[in-house]
Amino acid sequence: MAALTTSKLTLKYPLFCAEYLDEKTLLIAGGGGESRSGVGNGIHLVDTSSETPKITTSLDLPGNEDAVMSCAILPSKQAVLAGVNQTASILSAGSNAHFRTYWLSDEKTEVKEISAREYFRPKAWDDVYQRVTKSSVSGKYAVIASSVPLVRGEGVYGGEVVVLSVDEKGFAVLIDRIVNESEIVDVDIIPATDSDEKQKNIEYVVYSTPSSVYTRRVTPSGLGEERLVYTLPGAPKAGSSTRTKPQIRSVKLLTPTIFLLLVNLPFRSGVELQLVSVPLGQQATVLESHTYHPALAFRAGISAATSLDTLILPEKTVSSTSTSQQLVLGIASADLSVVVTTLDITWIASGEDSKKVQDAKFRHFKQLPTSHSFPATKVAFSPLSSDKTKKEIQLASVSASNTLVIHKFTKADEYYLSRPSVFRDTLPILLFSLVFIALLAVGLQLVFEYRGNLPKFDIMEVWEDVVETMKGSAKIGEQEMQRMEKVGQKLKQELKGAGKGVREGLKKEVVQGVLEGIIGMG
Questions:
Q1: Looking at per-residue confidence, does 284 or 123 come out higher?
Q2: pLDDT in tens, 20-56
Q3: Average pLDDT in the 113-119 region?
Q4: Contact yes or no for 231/200 (Cβ under 8 A)
Q5: Would you say 47 and 433 are in contact if contact means Cβ atoms under 8 Å apart?
Q6: Which domain holds residue 470?
Q7: Which of 29, 117, 340, 499 has a 20 to 30 A CA-CA distance from 286?
Q8: DSSP 296
Q9: A GO CC term (predicted)?
Q10: In this predicted structure, what is the pLDDT of residue 455?
């Protein structure tokens, strides 16, 4: 399906956050930080149901504090968790209440701050902020991660991941803190699938550095042992800021043992999507991958990714032991576009409460221009409507160019944005094969004409000979058939000894075939 509509809204300051409250209400946030230029900071609720997005609720934040750099809406819809640094003077004093909780009214007409806490413990606060904020779909846990400069005068500083227990109103309690020697690029958290673990409120957190992926078990009382589950081949070492090697950009948990990776290739030469399986106690396996290179005139592409969001559509029963499911991926590209890709997975039951991938396939869907002046800082899909008859989904993107762009799509049905198609998958191969055969034929013809000094083959000349022969045959009477038969036999004998060249021979074979047909008619 094609994008139905595209709409745009321009604000007064850069935007870094976008999160849907429901299928028609979008929360956006950002700002100019602690600036003397007068560029403010704020949080807004936007009505996206009409053709033009409209701001319905706003909260202006202090201009002497930092911008909102990340946020997550709790499933209760009663609170927003966000990362906002305090003033530079407070940071220089060695403290920073960076973890903010904002209350949302039931009518979505009011947003206000209700708490500010500090959880990170860096050696210095310069350039450190709450880069990632994620909430579990259960609403019981939240995970935040810091962004740090890789190298300072005193040495290499590591990133932090903090796991929190939260209630429906956003009140948070520290569970544990994780420190890594490298920067943290992304985190995610997902409930356990095992029924016993679910009863104990056990979930799994994943966090990624530019080169590696780690997982830990989360319980209300603490974290399990850290597991290094995947290392990207050729990735930079911890503490390295080189861009000459592939680097992980985003990670998304699908199950406690299966995750999706988005990797930026070196020198902005493209991105790679990977579906990775890490069964407990076994080595990681890349089940499926798909590579995008920079876009060309007739080819969709991505030079480097800046953000990823996923929309998981319902599972469809295939048999008593298997189901199919489509994931829709929105990837913000550094070339100011957004690429939509689908991932079709066939699941097979593996035990009472678990499943594994039987088959998987990435498929490009569409590349969308965004009209941003800078690359998108965040992309977000609208949640699925509880009304199954509604097929519209939205993809929002925000940018440091102060802009919000919304693309609206229509799903093919309840289970698919775009139905898998064998013809669509094989069409590029068929087209390539036909073009290759045509080029090969032209090349061989040129070689034969050059090396054999043969006259060029003119199909129109042959056709004219055939037409003239047929016209003449129509005028031949009964008395002329015998004479024509003799002429045809004589010409046939002469043609057997003809060796004047491949192209001339082809021409004579066509004429000979017409004459023999006439002789047979007689």
A1: 284
A2: 999 999 999 999 998 767 789 999 999 999 989 999 9
A3: 96
A4: no
A5: no
A6: 454-521
A7: 340
A8: B
A9: Golgi membrane
A10: 59
| Per-residue pLDDT tens digits for 209-221 | 999 999 999 999 9
**DSSP symbols for 488-510:** HHHHHHHHHT--S-HHHHHHHHH
Work out the mean pLDDT of the chain and round it to a whole number: 84
Report yes or no on 272 lying in a domain: no
Q: CA 302 to CA 118: how far, in whole Å?
A: 37
Answering whether pTM is above 0.85, one says no
Residues 324, 416: contact at Cβ < 8 Å?
no
Domain count, the chain: 1
Q: How large is the average pLDDT for residues 122-138?
A: 89
Q: Is residue 275 situated within a structural domain?
A: no
Return the pLDDT at 41.
95
Q: Would residue 78 count as lying in a domain? A: no
CA atoms in the 13 A half-sphere facing the CB of 489? 7
**Residues in the chain, overall count:** 522
What SS3 state is found at 179?
strand
33: left (phi over 0), alpha (psi -120 to 50) or beta: left
Beta-carbon contacts of residue 335 (< 8 Å; ≥ 6 apart): 294, 295, 301, 302, 303, 375
Nearest-angstrom CA–CA distance, 22 and 56: 14
Which candidate, 376, 372, 413, 371, places its Cα nearest to that of 392?
413
Alpha helices in 48-184 (DSSP H): 88-92
Token duo for residue 210:
């530019």
The rounded distance, in Å, linking the Cα atoms of 167 and 81 is: 12
Token readout for 325 is 């499911």
Residue 485 resides in a domain = yes
pLDDT of residue 16: 97
Count H helices and E strands in the chain, helices first.
6, 32
The backbone region for 285, taken as left when phi is positive above 0, alpha when psi lies in -120 to 50, beta otherwise, is beta
pLDDT single digits (tens) 384-419: 998 888 899 999 999 999 999 999 989 999 999 987
Exposure class string for 13-32: b at 16+ Cβ within 10 A, else e:
bbbbbbbbbebebbbbbbbb
Provide CB contacts within 8 A for 232, sequence distance 6+.
210, 211, 212, 246, 247, 248, 261, 263
Instruction: Say if residues 86 and 65 touch (Cβ distance below 8 Å).
Output: yes
Distance CA 222, CA 200 (A): 12
